[in-house]
Amino acid sequence: MSSGGFLESLRQEKAKAAALLAKREQALGTWKADLESLKQELVRLLKGPVDEGLLTLTEGQMDLREELLGPYTTWTLTIEAPAGAKVKVRPKGLHVVGANGRVDFSLGPKQVMLVRRENGQWSWVVHGVRKNEFAELTEDSLLEALEALFSA
């Protein structure tokens, strides 16, 4: 290979790397915006119980690293009941099997998953007999998920 051919090969490699980085940054920006919208929706859906003093919300941050997105910082929520039990809400990642993003709600060993589907809607994963089914994120479905986690 001549030096001109080698340099052209390096230019092409550099262009591909720049395009990949731009695509990654766009995907990460969209994912972080979607997560922020979800957090705001969760806060909105829980406003009634929070205003009544039935639940307390505490926001935090966590660092994630995904192979296709690299490292990034995102939010966490802790939902606390009056007796002190705490549900932890943690984004798990954009690139997950069977969904376009996942956020886990957990209390001890109990866990429920909220996934972002192809249409961009957030839905609960409901384990069916033959396959997983999905339930739309609503105030009622959120309270049902929390009830399942908080129940002994």
Tell me how many strands there are: 7
Task: Report the major sheet.
Answer: 7 strands, antiparallel
Compute the CA-based radius of gyration: 20 Å
Helical residue percent? Answer: 25-40%
Work out the helix count. Answer: 3
- Which structural class best describes the helix and strand composition? alpha+beta
Distance between the termini: 70 Å
Shape descriptor:
elongated
Return the string of H and E elements.
HHEEEEEEEH
* Cross-sheet strand order for the largest sheet: 1-2-3-4-5-6-7
Q: Spans with pLDDT under 50 lasting ≥5 residues?
A: none
Mean pLDDT level: 91
- Beta-strand proportion: 35-45%
Oligomer: single chain
Summed up, the domain count is 1
Concise structural overview:
With 152 residues, this protein is an alpha+beta fold. Helices cover 39% and strands 36% of the residues.
